[in-house]
Design brief:
The protein has about 400 residues and is mainly β. The protein contains four helices and 14 strands. The termini are far apart.
Length: about 400
């Protein structure tokens, strides 16, 4: 018998599940404050310029923002002029029915997004990192309308001393939070449905959304919005996809404002601990939640504070192409950062499992089932490409 869903119907859920997602990409769809026991509390918040899935005219392009864009004449390179935010998100604006999240200084919050098959159907996209890309969250009290990606991404740091020093790196996590899934007939999805069951609800349907749990700086000013930049770095690695021998960068962003309010209840994180066996519909990721408070939160000046970003192992795999300059000879000089992996000889392999395709047995497994991770060795390579004038 199908479980009942309050405030919705199975027809609505089925319609949501039947929407094609093979080529869907991801963005932050909702934010929630996390209570001291790991449970979501209060009202949800939404990104700038949000378009709800129930809105007339909704489609992925209304919310996704790809850098570099498809069809760029000089190829898949990121330009210094590429804006960090989607045009509809370059200024502080909220659409009707999609208010800002309200949270107090130091509050833990969850940024929620759908995996859309990127986690549970990884073989559909050859050459992607095992962690399904890396998600970064940057924070600032001084956003600009013309913010560029290269002025922020991998420039702002946890100490607030990077770049123009207007912001900080708050969090670095794997896109795959270790338990999220889309309902499909793939082995990864089926394994996770068994390991992480939940009752279908109006928001997620039968899927279980991914999330990135972060802590706001503890000293930001009450009464002033705090801006978050969510960056999903999802490159295609070189030498895997025959159509992309050099790989390519692929980045998606969401820009968000949070109303900072004076509410001790949302930041009282020491009075209790994570409650196990709670409903996964409204629960933080235990490992991310623990990391937030074991690190003691973030302290220091609001715009240049010393922040301890939360990091999930393994170290992210990254391939990034940046346009550096145009040489007089008519060539572009592009720096490509590639990551090689070495498996330490002292590590013993975990038992084999059959989740996912044989070529990648670790995909989709919970942390306790995974093989030991390999250590990254990054190599910077400068390549020259001809440019037509």
């Amino acid at each position: 018998m199908l479980p009942k869903i309050r405030g919705s119907t199975w027809l609505q859920v089925l319609i949501t599940l039947l929407i094609p997602t093979a080529y869907a990409h991801s963005w932050v769809e909702q934010l929630m404050v996390i209570g001291p026991n790991g449970t979501f509390v209060g009202a949800p918040g939404y990104p700038r310029g949000n378009v709800l899935r129930t809105s007339p005219g909704f489609g992925d392009p209304t919310m996704t923002y790809l850098i570099p864009p498809n069809g760029r004449e000089i190829g898949s390179v990121i330009l210094p002029t590429d804006r960090l935010c989607k045009p509809t998100q370059q200024t502080r604006n909220q659409t009707q029915g999609s208010p800002r999240l309200q949270a107090s200084p130091g509050a833990a919050i969850a940024l929620r997004f759908q995996e859309n098959g990127h986690v549970t159907l990884p073989w559909n996209q050859p050459g992607k990192p095992k962690n399904r890309g890396t998600v970064y969250v940057y924070g600032t009290t001084e956003p600009t309308d013309n913010e560029t990606l290269l002025a922020v991404h991998k420039v702002w740091n946890r100490d607030g001393t990077g770049g123009d020093k207007r912001g900080v790196l708050l969090s670095v996590q794997n896109f795959d939070d270790g338990r999220c899934y889309q309902i499909n007939n793939g082995n990864i999805s089926e394994a996770r449905q068994s390991e992480f069951p939940h009752v279908a609800d109006k928001l997620m349907g039968a899927d279980l959304w991914c999330q990135q749990d972060i802590a706001l700086p503890s000293n930001i000013s009450v009464g002033k919005p705090y801006t978050l930049y969510w960056v999903w770095d999802w490159p295609t690695l070189p030498h895997i996809d025959p159509t992309l021998p050099n790989g390519k960068p692929e980045i998606y962003t969401t820009c968000i404002d949070v109303d900072v309010i004076d509410n001790k209840n949302t930041s009282d994180t020491l009075s209790t601990g994570y409650v196990n066996d709670q409903s996964l519909n409204n629960a933080a990721i235990p490992s991310q939640f623990a990391g937030l408070y074991n690190s003691g939160g973030s302290k220091g000046p609001a715009a240049s504070s010393t922040v301890s970003p939360t990091v999930t192992s393994p170290t992210p795999t990254t391939t990034t192409s940046f346009l550096q300059s145009t040489q007089p000879s008519g060539f572009l000089t592009i720096t490509v950062t590639e990551t090689a992996y070495v498996t330490p000889s002292s590590c013993s392999l975990a038992p084999q499992h059959t989740y996912g395709p044989p070529r990648d047995p670790d995909l989709g497994l919970s942390r306790r089932h995974r093989r030991p991770q390999r250590l990254p060795l990054r190599v910077g390579i400068r390549r020259h490409y001809p440019v037509q004038h």
